[in-house]
Specification:
mainly alpha
Length: about 100
């Protein structure tokens, strides 16, 4: 019974799920220069987390390869989507900073 529970836990955690953020926020135009810089830092942090989840030596990727092979494919797709969204958000916020002459 313990082995079955362990296997189920490994299967359930075998897929990485980095956060896919919205590129454009509802209040982005209202942010001041300092707040825009902070939001860019947060977007970069999400991009770094996505790239970290991509590494194949992470437990969720090893579990995906061993127990749930399609999970590895879903992980890679999700990581790419999350990284692109984070980079696009940082680019959008940098454009707003330029527009506000920060």
């Amino acid at each position: 019974m313990k082995n079955l529970f362990l296997i189920l836990c490994l299967i359930c955690t075998s897929c990485a799920n980095p956060t896919v953020i919205n590129v454009i926020g509802p209040n982005d135009n209202k942010l001041n220069c300092e707040e825009l810089s902070a939001e860019i830092g947060i977007a970069n942090q999400y991009a770094n987390e996505a790239q970290e989840a991509k590494k194949m030596n992470k437990p969720h990727n090893i579990g995906a390869l061993l127990f749930f092979l399609p999970g590895a494919g879903f992980t890679i797709k999700n990581v790419e989507e999350a990284a692109k969204a984070a980079k696009d958000r940082a680019f959008h916020l940098n454009k707003l900073k330029e527009k506000k002459k920060c």
